[in-house]
Amino acid sequence: MLVVSTTGPEAEAYRVYCLEAVAARYDVVLITPAEPTWEREFITDFEIADPDDAPALAAAGEALAGRHELTGVVTWTEWYLVPAARLARRLGLHANSPEVMEAARNKASARTLFARHGVPSAASMSARSLLEAALAAETIGDPVVLKPAARAGSIGVIRVDRAEELPVGFAFAAAGARDGIESTKVLVEEYLDGPEVSVECVTHRGHTTAVAVTRKTLGAPPFFEEIAHSVDAADRLLDQVAPVAAAAIKALGITDGVSHVEMRLVGGRPRLIEVNARIGGDMIGHLVKLATGVDLARAAADTACGQAPDLTRTRHSAAAIRLLYPNASGTLTHCHCHFDDDFAARTPWLEQVAFQRTVGDTVILPPDGDMFSARAGFLITTGPTADVAQARADEALGHLTLAAAPPPSAA
Questions:
Q1: pLDDT at 33 over 50
Q2: What pTM does this model have?
C-alpha cells in the first residue's frame, strides 16, 4: 500500500492514527515531502518527493513500484487528492480518476454537478473581482459567504452580512484563494442558516454507506473556524442525511474511498456545503472508531485496493473533540494540562490530550491567521452519549491552561 502524505508535527498530531491503522493491515510505503520521523515505525520503505511536483512524484512512485508490489494508493491530505489520483493512474492502480478528484477539489465544479444531479446545495457564483462579487451578492441576496474555490480547513471563508462589508470580505477570501491549486477563484454563495454537520461515508464500487454523523461547533462569526465535533453512534439524524450525502458523492463520480460530506440543516432539511474526498480532519475518523468501532482509515486503504471494507459496528457509544485555541494572537505564555492523580484515576473517559505548540510559539488567530497558525492542540473525551462526552470535555477544559500575550505593539 502506497501512502502519499505530509509530514511534521501537524501530520503526526492529526494523522498518526490513520497511518497506524493502515499499517496494521498492509505493508506501507510512503511518499512524503521530507525525511520521515514518527512515520518510520509504520512503514517499510519511502521516497522523498513534493507531491505537488508531478515529475518528482511520478519518479518516486515508480521507484517504489520497482521495489514493491503495490496494491493501491491512498492519501488523507486534501492538497494531494489530485496528485495521488494521477499517480495511481500512472502506476495502473485502482483509484478514482484525476478528473473526479479535480471536481471534488474545485467547489465551483462541484456546485455545478450538484445542480445537474438535483442534489440540494447552496446558490453559488464565481467572482474574479470585487465588482463581480458585488453583483453576485446582489443576485443571491444578503447574507452571503465568500470562500476560495479550492482550499480547505475554512481558510479564507467569511460571512458578509451587508454590502459595506464586502470589500474586506472579498480581500480576505481572495487572499485565501491565492494558494489554491485547482482554482484561485473566489465563490460568492448563499448563506445556509442552520446547524452544521458532516456525514462520514465509505464508497465501494459505487455503493455508498453513511457510517456516522459528526455534529460541529463553530467559532464566532464572521469566520467558520471549527472548534468542536462530536459523534454519537445512536444519532438519529444519520438516516435523514445519508441519502443526500450518497447523492452528492454519486454526482461527483466518486466510486471508491472515504468521503467527509459537509452540509447544513436549513429548516430541518440537509443542504450541501461540500464533499471532501478523504477522511475528515480534526481526528474525526478517530471519533468515529471510538463511537462505532468502524475504522475509516482501514476502509480507505481497503477500497483503494479494490477490497470490500468491513463496516461492522462493534461499539455503540459517543466521542467528542475540543480544538484548543489561545485567548488572543501573540506568544504562547501557558500551554499545559494539570491533571492530578485523582483526576486521572477517575476519568477513563479522557481519551487523549495533545498539544502541537509549546510556550514561546507564535499563534495568529483569524482574520490574520487560520487553523494552521492558531490551533494549539486538542482533547478527546468519550461517553455513552454525545451530550455526556461534551460535558466531560467541558470538565477537562477546566484543567488546561492555554494563553497568549499579544505583541507589545498590540497591547
A1: yes
A2: 0.94
